[in-house]
C-alpha cells in the first residue's frame, strides 16, 4: 500500500532523488519528435550528425514528458488537487541519443491557502541530469495539495 503525502507532510529543502532512470533511445526520440516537433536534428540521423549536437536530440516537450514520467516513480502518492503552473523552465543541455536521465525533486516553497484551510500550495524544483551528472533540464512546479483533515 502506497503512503499518501499531504501538504502538512512536506518540508522545505526536502529532496527526493528518483531511483528510476530513463534512456533516450533512437526510437523514442524519433517517434516523439515525428509527431510533435519534426526538426531535422530530432528525426534524421544524417541531419543530426551535421548539427551542432552531432547526434539526435530529444525535443523539449519530450524532455518535459520524461520529467513527468520519472516523477511517477516517487515512493509516495501525493494528494494533489491540481497543478497551478510550471515556471522557470530551462533547457540547460540537449538530451542526446543514449543519454540516461535521472530526476531529483526538491521542495522549495510551502504556504497554506489563505482562503481555503483544507489545502496548501507546494512549489517543487525538478532537476533532470544525464549520466555524466550534467543538468539537462530544470523547472519549478506549483501544486495545490490537500491538507490532512
Compose a concise summary of this entry:
The chain is α+β, with helices and mostly antiparallel strands and 149 residues long.
Shape: elongated
Q: Fill in the CATH topology.
A: Thiol Ester Dehydrase, Chain A
What's the architecture, going by CATH? Roll
Helical residue percent band: 10-25%
User: What is the helix tally?
Assistant: 4
Work out the radius of gyration: 17 Å
Low-confidence stretches: none
> Order of helices and strands, N to C?
EEEHHHHEEEEE
Your description of this structure?
By secondary structure, the protein is an alpha+beta fold. The protein has one domain: Hotdog Thioesterase (Thiol Ester Dehydrase, Chain A), CATH 3.10.129. 22% of the residues lie in helices and 40% in strands. The strands form two sheets. Strands 2, 3, 5, 6, 7 and 8 form a six-stranded antiparallel β-sheet that branches.
Amino acid at each position: 500500500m502506497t503512503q499518501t503525502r499531504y501538504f502538512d507532510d512536506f518540508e522545505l529543502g526536502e529532496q527526493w532523488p528518483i531511483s528510476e532512470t530513463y534512456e533516450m533511445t533512437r526510437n523514442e526520440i524519433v517517434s516523439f519528435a515525428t509527431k510533435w516537433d519534426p526538426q531535422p536534428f530530432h528525426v534524421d540521423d544524417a541531419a543530426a550528425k551535421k548539427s551542432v549536437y552531432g547526434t539526435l536530440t530529444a525535443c523539449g516537450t519530450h524532455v518535459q514528458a520524461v520529467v513527468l514520467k520519472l516523477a511517477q516513480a516517487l515512493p509516495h502518492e501525493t494528494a494533489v488537487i491540481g497543478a497551478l503552473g510550471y515556471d522557470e523552465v530551462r533547457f540547460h543541455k540537449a538530451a542526446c541519443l543514449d543519454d540516461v536521465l535521472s530526476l531529483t525533486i526538491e521542495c522549495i516553497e510551502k504556504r497554506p491557502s489563505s482562503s481555503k484551510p483544507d489545502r496548501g500550495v507546494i512549489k517543487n524544483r525538478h532537476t533532470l541530469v544525464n549520466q555524466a551528472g550534467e543538468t539537462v533540464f530544470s523547472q519549478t512546479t506549483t501544486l495545490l495539495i490537500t491538507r490532512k483533515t
